[in-house]
Amino acid sequence: MAEFALAVPFDGLGIEKVGVANDLPPHVTVLIPCPGEVPAITEVLAPFDQFDVTFTRLDRFPGTLWLAPEPSEPFVAMTEAMVARFPDWPPYGGSYSSIITHLTVAQSQLDETATLVEPLLPLASRAESVVLFTSVDGRHWQEHATFDLG
User: Fold this and answer.
1) Residue 111: which H helix or E strand, with range?
2) Phi, psi torsion values for 98, nearest 5 degrees
3) 67 vs 21, which has greater pLDDT?
4) Rg of the chain's alpha carbons, rounded to an integer?
5) C-alpha to C-alpha distance for 148 and 94, rounded to whole angstroms
């Protein structure tokens, strides 16, 4: 059965993920798992505009090094709008009580990767679209639909 993930991709940051067990491009997750209902997702994301994003600092979860996007509020608002439309699809399956927007950089060699990435900060980009990715095995993903932000 296919699995879906909704994310804002950031391909042009000039960083490579280290030890991450999937082939998704660098991204900030909006909702995973996610329904694959393209018309409904189009409706939910229609009010959102493009916005500039800066990644100014690294942070960590256990076993994960990540970049913090600023501002984080548009990502949180998109996630909350998706959950309002799809209440049976909480972020990360309901495993966490709060939304912490992040771009995963590494899940191994955390200290070494931090040493390489920190001098590159801040990284600036623009959130222009949200992509619905699909996977049958949770490791290999492909684009299913793209939703351009206004």
Assistant:
1) helix 110-117
2) -135, 160
3) 67
4) 15
5) 27
